[in-house]
What does this fold into?
Amino acid sequence: MITIEQLRKDYESSRVLYTDFLKEISNQLKTILENHGVTKIAEISQRVKGFDSIEQNIRNLKFASTIPEHLAQVKDLAGIRIALLFKRYIDPICSSIEAHFEIQKKKYIFHEDDQFGYKSVHYEVRLKRAACMPDIFDKFGNLIAEIQVRTLSQHLWAAASHYMNYKERKDVGKDLLRPLSRMAALLELIDEEYDRLLNQKEEYLIKADISDSLETLNVDLLSKILNEEFPDSKGFALDENMSSILADLFLFEVKTVKDFRNLLNKQKTKVLELKEVAFKIIRDAEPDVAPDAIDFSIQVIIRKMLDFEFSKEDRWGFFEKVSRLPAGTVGKLISTMEGEEGEK
It folds into this structure.
């Protein structure tokens, strides 16, 4: 029979392997999240289980034999958690995981009488040969990872209940049972309200008039207009801070859908002609750069429109001339001006 010390040595020699295995699993999960367009509303965390936890599980008789004969019997040694902001994405993400990995085991944790507030889907998975390079499969193909999929609210409950050692109702004193149940209900309500908010936002965008209305611009209306006017398929970087772009527009009193449409109608063509010039310069300087590898910042384009619309020619002409001066000239000019100011 193997001893705990022998198992510890096995663990220490395999830790780097499991760490690299988790990186590979995590990269494949990131691709799944990108395909669903949810990278901004998902968190991936990973860990190789510490040996102290394995030793504690041995003492608590959580293995079929007294001591696991080898690390492969510790199914959650490599663990990854996906926490999603919106509950609606759990099912499609789970479907993709089931298609992408070899599923060894799937388990649901439900909100039941003896397990309140804690919900998630747990998988034990192996890499699928067809989903990775041969050398990757040869290195990690025999290893198992545990993947947990839950919402951020569900994760909040799991973290709190784990800290307080509350996993079942029998673990909780009578006086604490009611407030804990109330917390579980509140977290479940948060998940429902987040999904409701997302649905309402989508309905709002479908119905929103972005043609020529006097409605005050907001982030959602701005995003809808920009997606229409500057499709990402044409090389525009739409994954930007819309709040910052909105602030730029409001600074110049471009505050309604109609105001923004007027700006676009007057200045868009001129700015896009400049973009084509910039692209030609890049292409001439770096002929190996693929066209689809170049993204043009929407915020820069909007700011240039505002420049054309509201700047004075003499002021901007001065800055354009200064920008063409040889390196160091501007510094000397400023020093000279400061010296003249001091003499006065």
